[in-house]
Amino acid sequence: MPFDSYFTGPREDVLRENVLKPNEIMTEVFIPTPAPGTKQAWTKLKNRQVYDFAVVAVAAAFTVDGENWKDGRIVLGGVSPVPYRATVIENQIKGKSVKAGIQQAAAALRTVARPMSMNAYKIDVAQNMVERTVLN
Predict the structure, then answer these.
(1) The whole model's pTM is what?
(2) b/e for 49-63, b at 16 or more Cβ within 10 A?
(3) How far is the C-alpha of 77 from the C-alpha of 126, rounded, in Å?
(4) Helix (H, G, I), strand (E, B) or coil at 62
(5) Disulfide engineering: 74 pairs with which of 19, 40, 86, 102, CB 3.0-4.6 Å?
(6) Cβ distance 43 to 131 under 8 Å?
(7) In what helix (H) or strand (E) does residue 4 lie, and over which residues does it extend?
């Protein structure tokens, strides 16, 4: 099963977080070997060291052709009930210079984000963290 299909949100079933049925257990996770030259980074922002939950987290794994984004994934945590794959950013940056284009690509989050009343600030945080994570 692809990772993108594993998690279920509260709109599908408020009592479940994934597609596993009662009495089912995951027995194996296959993570393919990254392509040579793959860049990977992860950043997590939390309120205090004593909390495990992220305000926002960003994971990025991507390959470049010269300085241009060739292929990759960006996943956000802490902004949705389940991990959120930021395909809007991936599509925006594909084929473009990572350094010159990541800021504009990260801003594309604003076109799809639907924040709740008390967490709209997370859009700004996520946008900036995507930029920092990809560039570092």
Answers:
(1) 0.88
(2) eeeeebbbbbbbbbe
(3) 9
(4) strand
(5) 86
(6) no
(7) helix 3-6
What's the distance, CA 133 to chain centroid? 11
Written in H, E and C, the secondary structure of 99-125 is HHHHHHHHHHHHHCCCCCCCCCHHHHH
Whether 6 shows a pLDDT value over 80: the answer reads yes
**Residue found by looking up tokens 């996943």 in the block:** 75
DSSP 17: S
Is the per-residue pLDDT at 5 higher than 80?
yes
- Grouping H, G, I as helix, E, B as strand and the rest as coil, residue 10 is coil
Q: Which residue has the tokens 């008390």?
A: 118
Q: Could you tell me if residue 35 is left (phi over 0), alpha (psi between -120 and 50 degrees) or otherwise beta?
A: beta
Q: Are 28 and 15 in contact (CB under 8 A)?
A: no
User: What's 41-57 look like in SS3?
Assistant: EEEEECCCCCCCCCCEE
For the chain, the average pLDDT equals 92
